[in-house]
């Protein structure tokens, strides 16, 4: 079976700073993999290298068997199958929620306005903001804006979804609504690679948890092992800092 994502010997430098130091890992179709670790460990850079928002310095990235790091690859065509949700919602402020979810469908997938609107309404309803179609981003809470951003990604029919700390910009009381949408996607079998600091979500929803520190993967395994019984002192130190005593 072809891996959904395969990363081989991935290195990324920013100037003299080596942020990724030879990453090897895979994600299988239908898996939810959560990447955890301290700030500056390379988690977001890894995610951005998977869809070539950052160009790897060295190494290879494959998505569903296609090498994205091949110089001859049509990167725009390859990216069509990869949904991406960022910390910041990146919605167009002058467009309604409905228009934000329609625009890429029309421009990239060449869907008709009518079809794009049907798909947009379906996906906005799916993430729980179907009643906000005519609202502009400034009229929405952060959690609602993030759910519109998820609907926008889903409207492109992606084969996998990348989430880069999707709840970190949200007020605590709004985090749950976004995590509920992500849980539902996981239950439906969406392949997901999630950089997160939400340990409860990682423990409950992830098939695998990857702990990164200092640009390398320190530990990779099921949540019960990586979060519940970590093997490495670096992992234990990190979890002591981020978990409440009752979660340990």
Brief rundown of the structure:
With 248 residues, this protein is of the alpha/beta class. Helix content is 36%, strand content 24%.
Main structural class = alpha/beta
Approximate shape: globular
Report strand %. 15-25%
Mean pLDDT: 94
How much helical structure, as a percent, in the residues?
25-40%
- Name the strands of the widest sheet in spatial order: 6-7-8-3-9-10
* Measured distance between first and last alpha carbons: 36 Å
Q: Mind describing the biggest β-sheet?
A: 6 strands, mixed
Low-confidence stretches: none
The tally of strands reads 10
Quickly count the helices.
9
Rg: 18 Å
Q: Helices and strands, in N-to-C order?
A: EEEHEEHEHHHEHEHEEHH
What does this protein look like?
The protein is α/β, with parallel strands linked by helices and 248 residues long. It is built from nine helices and ten strands. The longest helix has 16 residues, at 172-187. The two termini are 36 Å apart. The model has no long low-confidence stretch (mean pLDDT 94).
Q: Features of this protein?
A:
alpha/beta, 6-stranded mixed beta sheet, 248 residues, 4-stranded antiparallel beta sheet, 9 helices
């Amino acid at each position: 079976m072809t891996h959904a994502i395969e990363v081989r010997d991935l290195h990324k430098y920013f100037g003299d700073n080596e942020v990724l130091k030879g990453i090897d890992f895979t994600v299988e179709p239908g898996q939810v993999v959560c990447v955890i670790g301290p700030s500056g460990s390379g988690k977001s850079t890894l995610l951005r290298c998977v869809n070539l928002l950052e160009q790897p310095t060295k190494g290879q990235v494959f998505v569903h068997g296609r090498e994205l790091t091949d110089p001859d690859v049509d990167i725009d065509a390859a990216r069509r199958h990869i949904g991406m949700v960022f910390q910041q919602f990146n919605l167009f402020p002058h467009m309604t929620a409905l228009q934000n979810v329609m625009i890429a469908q029309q421009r990239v997938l060449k869907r008709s306005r009518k079809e794009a609107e049907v798909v947009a309404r379906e996906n906005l309803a799916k993430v729980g903001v179907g009643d906000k179609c005519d609202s502009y981003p400034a009229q929405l809470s952060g959690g609602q804006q993030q759910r519109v951003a998820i609907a926008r990604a889903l409207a492109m029919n992606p084969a996998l979804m990348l989430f880069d700390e999707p709840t970190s910009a949200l007020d605590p009381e709004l985090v749950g609504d976004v995590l509920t949408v992500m849980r539902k996607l996981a239950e439906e079998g969406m392949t997901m690679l999630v950089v997160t600091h939400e340990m409860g979500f990682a423990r409950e929803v992830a098939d695998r948890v990857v702990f990164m520190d200092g640009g390398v993967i320190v530990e990779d395994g099921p949540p019960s092992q990586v979060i519940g019984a970590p093997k490495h002192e670096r992992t234990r130190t990190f979890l002591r800092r981020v978990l409440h005593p009752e979660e340990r």
